[in-house]
Amino acid sequence: xxxxxxxxxGMVTFAAIIVGADSPVYTPQQLANRKVGVPFYFGTHYxxxxxxxxxxxxxxxxxxxxxxxxxxxxNLLMRREIEGTTLTEPYVTLAEKKGCRVVCSAFxxxxxxxxxxxxxxxxxxxxxxxxxxxxxxxxxxxxxxxYFIDYHKAKxxxxxxxxxxxxxxxxxxxCEPAPIPRDEMQRTYExxxxxxxxxxxxxxxxxxxxxxxxxxxxxx
Length: 220
Description:
Layout (H helix, E strand, L loop, with lengths): L3 E16 L15 E4 L4 H10 L9 E4 L4 H9 L5 E5 L2 H7 L3 E14 L5 H20 L1 H13 L19 E2 L7 H13 L15 H7 L4
Parallel strand pairs: 2-3, 2-4
Antiparallel strand pairs: 1-4, 1-5, 1-6
Helix pairs in contact: 4-5, 4-7
């Protein structure tokens, strides 16, 4: 069963390219022709390309496939099996506590994905619930940082060594769910194709359920 995008998520993800404490790399320019581990076809893969092509030619950008999941990539970095990698929070903070360095960072906006079984009413209800959560978090973000730690430490006990004071509130961003703007959708599609991906996809509309996302985010 095919899945398509149904709109933007309420979470805006902070991610960074990280190097080890003993790395000679301090700036994005110094990553020229050095391998950066990224999870192919996931969010930080695309973000790494976005960040690096502002400083390097495409020929100088070298990425290699590493597992999805910041924990795995941090382990590879700490074992010096890769020169740099992408991490998201709370692993950016954990890496910094271990002495690693942020070379460059940015935010990216993920999307909700579902099959045709997800109808408009289901998405509307979901968006209302997420919207309420966003309002509560934005009203007192500090209050919810411990929930963020607890969620991740349930899967990785080392995250439990972090405290709310370790985390930067500015890196944890939420916003109201919204449809993907048509112009942004087209630009992103063309950019991804320019990297040799989506060659069999003739239009971004093959990837996004426009009817569901439009109606599910309609007001009134």
